[in-house]
Amino acid sequence: MTPTLIDGKKVAADVRARLVKEIEELKAAGHTPGLAVVLVGEDPASQVYVGSKVKACAELGIYSQKWALPAETTQEELVQLIHQLNADDRIHGILVQSPPPPHIDEEAVILNIDPRKDVDGFHPANVAKLVLEDETGFVPCTPLGCMELLAAYGIPTAGKHAVVIGRSMIVGKPMANLLVSKKANATVTIAHSRTADLPGLCRTADILVAAVGRPEMVKADYVKPGAVVLDVGINRIEDASKPRGYRIVGDVDFEAVKDSCSAITPVPGGVGPMTIAMLMANTVKACRQQIAG
Ligand code: GUN
């Protein structure tokens, strides 16, 4: 079986095209959506992500501020910046790139973000809204992007068994909440490092979401013939043949599973491009809500 390759670049471009129109309308009414991106420290992957987020804002006409703070920045200094951004009317969305250096208490920092500006959907007020299915809240961008991909490809979720591998607050848990919601109506199992017979469980999945951060962990024996596979992993592995000395692979062994699944997201070019597109969507949503008061 040749699987459908789920083209995240194309779906992300469609989302961005929709947003450009909305942003033009907002600007015509005197409002420019604004996003502040905060990076603490010099993690190379985070630097790339932050750069991509700021670039995406520029391309769409969203006002952005990039705050690149030294690794020694204290918790108090970071919280002070968050309060400044909470009070800045030009800024509708605030994002602190994860993971921060170890001396920073990430949860405590997030608690200081005004939930109305929490476009990452990490604040407990937004986690609660997701669980309550209150659509005024913000949903983390990567799982939101996964749902957008399923919708764009007309992949049904109702009555399907979805297995989400990974229980992070950024992907696994919000993904499970979205899939089990009354909008999607999937039956959901969350698997993790202590799950018994992980391959056997995953083989019962109609929709398999891999969000563990372990390169090519999902092998052929994890996938039921005809299943839909969403690979959220972005892992750097050494590859001396590449100019950078590494290449990017997902959590799924693409070559091993591609012949049995019905549809799959490649890495790169699958879920990855959706994350930033949904961040832009959340920023526009935040702007709209803050205008409405
Ligand atoms: N690090 C990896 N993914 C994300 C994300 O979606 N948001 C933030 N803030 N940090 C991340």
Order of helices and strands: EHEHEHEHHHEHEHEEEEHEH
User: Roughly what fraction of the amino acids lie in strands?
Assistant: 15-25%
> How many H/I helices?
10
Work out the helicity level.
Answer: 25-40%
Summing up helix and strand content along with how strands pair, one would put the structural category as: alpha/beta
Alpha carbon gyration radius: 19 Å
Spatial strand sequence of the major β-sheet:
1-11-8-7-5-6
Mean pLDDT equals: 98
Low-pLDDT segments: none
End-to-end separation? 52 Å
- Ligands in the structure? guanine
User: Globular, elongated, flat, extended or rod-shaped: what is the shape?
Assistant: globular
Reported for the largest beta sheet, the result is:
6 strands, parallel
- Number of E-type strands: 11
Describe this protein with a few key phrases.
six-stranded parallel β-sheet, single chain, 293 residues, alpha/beta, 10 helices, binds guanine, three-stranded parallel β-sheet, 11 strands, 40% helix
